[in-house]
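Reopening this one. Same input as before:
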Amino acid sequence: MSVPAPPTDWPQLREWRRAERRRLIAAREALDPVRRQERNAAITASLLAAFGALERCVVGFCWPIRGEFDARHAMRRWRERGAVTALPYVVAPATPLAFRAWRPGMALARGAMDIPYPAAGPPVVPDAAVVPVNGFDAAGYRLGYGGGYFDRTLAQLERRVLAIGVGDAEARLDTIVPQLHDIPMDFIVTEAAVYARGGQGLCAVTPAEAAVEAARLFASRALPRQGAGGLSSPVCYAGESS
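Same output, byte for byte:
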């Protein structure tokens, strides 16, 4: 049975995206806890194998909600090697996100969608971002929550970050019919494979091949901005315990 193609008219496409978002989130939330742990472990292993260069960077990530991949273990491993990890927060509606450095033990506030973010601290600018996807398509475009915050954030940065989408293998779509405001991920990582985005769309690659491509993108974008931390004073993670 063939799957109907999504509409191309924007009002209808917006409704189609909403319906697909609801469907994909419901499927993700229905995952058995053991299956979710296995998925998280597989994605974490691929991230650490493919993107060791992130240990020299400011790495933005999202606090997991609604059954999303939990990036905190990968973030801890990168922090142990020198990275600064950062969480985003909404400054105002329809504006780019801002980021603050975070590690376990820092006080958290609740922001949009009740998502935690650091309650205080200086802003940082990420060199790379590990971004959850509700869905993704064959060209590397991400189906998020519909607010457009990450697209605005990626678009406004002077130097584009290395964008790594993470999500379920079953969340792949043929296309989301990308619009001018949609920005593709550089990589997509699922429990089944690592994909790099090229001229023909997503291509499955080995962790070693992903590392080579990430290094090429870092060089072309002059990243990291100021080495690990990107701050005038390094963030101290001494005594981190969780």
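So the earlier flakiness isn't reproducible anymore. For the record, The longest strand covers residues 84-90.
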